[in-house]
Design a protein that fits this description.
Length: about 525
């Protein structure tokens, strides 16, 4: 078989038309020129004024409410103690137009897109027992408002046979949210924002799916089916083909499981592509740590260890739906890291795709092994840029916390990715790869070792390891999303518990920026 040949055959144990067993739900988003009839409420924005509350919305607010009605709304808000603090939600009877839900935005001179997104997310989560609301908030920033309301309304009920009454009452996903706009030019922005929301939701749904249902064989087919819906070319390598073509990292990690590994490639190839980009995402469908077994506490969260691959899948589909003029080749290496008689061991030496060898010191540092194979393969295409992303290291959480991704790589490209993340509200920070790590990743019995013998700079050490597999002359960024991809704390703004969909919006914005440059 030719080195770069792929099989499109579905794994024998998985139906070729397999889809996710359950999808999350979100509010239905609409754009209308005037206020719909029979709505349950109008959501308006509220600023903290210097001396008094201020309604926000400009001409659109005047289009919906008269001056007297706006004065009545402010009087009611002041009477119930509304402050306009960011994300504060206040319900009042409103006027004869409709009841009013006011969401605080803080001080007007401090308003930015992320403040607006988070406020709209908080508003969306407050829309319990309401079937249809309209809002004027889009006048302050339509894309940010649509993103906030759309992502904030997300609900994932899982595989429960019955949903209890409390969940039914708390469900905001059945709500219809209508954005009022009198500007014809808003339609394109609205549609684009909807696509971005739906892309993030897709990533969330894949990450939230339990490993009993999402494993390498089923994941590859489900992901390929999603991509095919949007006209993308998909190709799958099974375990035999991986062995024939030398993907030693993916095979080593996946061999301990009865559910064997896969490599999925997805291509978006527009005719007049301005640049080319490779995307690589870690797809560990469950991570026990292998022979270097993890502690049992919170191991259930390891269903999220394929968050990088879910983000890559969602991004390449978004590129097609948005018809962006940049070629994207997405590689999703998939494996389940399990201990067994067939599992790889500390002390083993494996040979990666392309020939580099790695000494295994810790089988729980498995993500970089499958990424290394996929990065080496992606580099053969000689893309202009290569981005890989993964829930890779606990060191990321120690360094940057639960919400901020660490970005390493080629200096200028690294800094650009981190800045774009902050711009769209997916917090990211550029991190160095110190030169002393050059020696620490070397092995006396192989080209590399998969961990260093130091407890310091673990996140950067993983980045330094991956750097060895990036082709010469390719602008590269590695994004560690160990914390940001899966929210184990409480919901906030437009971010739910469990899967967040990070960093899909960052990557889509990167592609859009490339398309416009």
């Amino acid at each position: 078989m030719a080195k770069n040949a792929f099989s499109t055959q579905a794994p024998t144990k998985v139906s070729k038309d397999a889809t996710l067993p359950v999808r999350g739900t979100v509010a239905e988003l609409k754009l209308e020129k005037k206020l719909p009839k029979n709505i349950d409420a109008v959501v308006v924005a509220l600023f903290q004024g210097e001396d008094a509350l201020e309604l926000a919305g400009g001409d659109l607010l005047d289009f919906i409410f008269s001056a007297d009605q706006q004065a009545a709304i402010l009087t009611q808000l002041e009477a119930v103690g509304a402050t306009g603090k960011a994300q504060e939600i206040t319900r009042i009877p409103g006027t004869d137009v409709a009841p009013v839900i006011a969401v605080g935005l803080g001080k007007a001179d401090l308003l930015d897109d992320e403040t607006l997104r988070r406020a709209c997310g908080a508003a969306a989560r407050s829309l319990k027992n309401l079937s249809h609301v309209a809002t004027t908030i889009g006048d302050l920033g339509l894309a940010a408002a649509v993103t906030g309301f759309g992502l904030g309304s997300y609900s994932f009920k899982g595989l429960r046979k019955e949903v209890d009454e409390k969940d039914k009452k708390d469900d905001t996903s059945a709500t219809t949210i209508t954005f009022i706009s009198t500007n014809k030019a808003d339609k394109d922005e609205f549609v684009s924002s909807q696509i971005i929301v739906e892309s993030v939701i897709l990533a969330r749904d894949f990450v939230n799916t339990p490993s009993s249902h999402l494993y390498p064989e089923s994941y590859a087919v489900m992901a390929a089916n999603e991509a095919t819906k949007h006209g993308l070319k998909t190709e799958i390598l099974d375990e035999k083909q991986l062995a024939e073509q030398g993907f030693g990292g993916i095979l080593a990690v996946g061999n301990g499981s009865a559910r064997k590994p896969r490599l999925l490639r997805i291509d978006w190839t527009p005719r007049k592509a301005k640049k080319s980009l490779a995307l690589v995402g870690k797809g560990i469908t469950f991570d026990t740590g292998g022979i270097s077994l993890k502690p049992g506490a919170n191991m259930d969260n390891m269903i999220s260890d394929m968050g990088g691959s879910a983000a890559v899948l969602a991004t390449v589909i978004a590129a097609a739906r948005l018809n962006l003029p940049i070629a994207v080749a997405a590689y999703l290496p998939m494996a389940e890291n399990m201990p067994s008689g067939d599992a790889f061991r500390p002390g083993d030496v494996i040979t990666h795709y392309g020939g580099i060898t790695s000494e295994i010191l810790n089988t729980d540092a498995e993500g970089r092994l499958i990424l290394a194979d996929a990065i080496a393969r992606a580099s053969e295409d000689t893309p202009d840029y290569l981005i890989d992303t993964a829930t890779l290291t606990g060191a990321q959480l120690v360094s940057l916390g639960l919400r901020t991704s660490g970005v390493m790589g080629t200096d200028e490209f690294r800094d650009s990715i981190a800045a774009t993340g902050r711009e769209v509200g997916e917090q990211a920070w550029a991190m160095p790869i110190p030169e002393e790590l050059d020696e620490q990743v070397k092995s006396p019995v192989a080209d590399l070792r998969n961990v260093t013998n130091s407890r310091f700079a673990g996140m950067s050490a993983a980045g330094r390891y991956l750097q060895e597999f990036v082709g010469e002359g390719i602008e590269w960024a590695h994004v560690d999303i160990a914390g940001p991809a899966y929210n184990t704390a409480g919901e906030y703004g437009y971010t739910p518990k469990r899967a967040t969909g990070a960093p899909v919006r960052t990557f889509i914005q990167v592609l859009k920026d490339f398309s416009e440059s």
